[in-house]
């Protein structure tokens, strides 16, 4: 009996390591400015994490995040260290996916927003996710939400020039749209 449990722990460690390796490869691709390849690696890491959850008995993992699935599973399936590594890796993957998408020639701002909001659901104070959400909402034309996220990121890093620039652009868009709304009514 002990031997079987030891083998499953070793196999779980292998699955966690595989997911983390794909995330690390994605990070290297990002540093090398190979954004499409990085996106593939981050997606593969997330798929590995979902596969791990399926192996541990969660058949419904496709409808929720791996870290959410892990919280409902038996604590004996993974060590606390492995569980923490998966949760951190998941957030890093989503944050990094958003960063990659923002580097693409044709940016999918809806997807950037989606990935950032996944991070913010778990880490509401994540500076990069707040800033990137603000950028995404700005380009999607939702200037009030953009300003909210940008101001939240500004609280954390008040001297960040990119944040300041986007706040100024967003406030300018809001001021320009307000008179038009009054004229229309």
Task: Characterise the protein shown here.
This protein is mainly α and 185 residues long. It has a domain of 105 residues: Methane Monooxygenase Hydroxylase, Chain G, domain 1, CATH 1.20.58. It is 80% helix and 0% strand. It has eight helices and no strands. The N terminus is likely disordered.
Total DSSP helices: 8
CATH class of one domain: Mainly Alpha
Termini gap: 75 Å
Which fold does the CATH topology of one domain refer to? Methane Monooxygenase Hydroxylase, Chain G, domain 1
Uncertain spans = 1-6
The radius of gyration over CA amounts to 20 Å
Order of helix and strand elements from N to C terminus: HHHHHHHH
Write the layout of secondary structure elements.
Elements: H1 2-31, H2 35-55, H3 66-72, H4 80-103, H5 109-122, H6 127-140, H7 143-156, H8 161-184
């Amino acid at each position: 009996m002990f031997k079987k449990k030891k083998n499953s722990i070793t196999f779980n460690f292998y699955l966690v390591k595989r997911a983390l390796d794909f995330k690390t490869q994605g990070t290297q691709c990002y540093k090398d400015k190979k954004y499409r390849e990085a996106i593939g690696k981050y997606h593969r890491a997330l798929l590995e994490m979902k596969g791990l959850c399926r192996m541990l008995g969660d058949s419904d993992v496709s409808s929720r995040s791996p870290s959410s699935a892990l919280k409902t599973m038996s604590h004996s399936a993974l060590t606390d260290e492995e569980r923490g590594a998966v949760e951190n890796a998941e957030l890093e993957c989503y944050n990094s996916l958003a960063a990659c998408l923002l580097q693409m020639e044709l940016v999918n701002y809806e997807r950037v927003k989606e990935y950032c909001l996944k991070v913010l659901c778990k880490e509401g104070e994540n500076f990069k996710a707040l800033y990137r959400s603000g950028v995404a909402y700005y380009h999607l034309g939702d200037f009030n939400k953009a300003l909210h996220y940008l101001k939240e990121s500004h609280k954390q890093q008040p001297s960040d020039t990119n944040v300041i620039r986007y706040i100024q652009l967003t406030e300018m868009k809001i001021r320009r749209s307000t008179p038009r709304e009054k004229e229309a009514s």
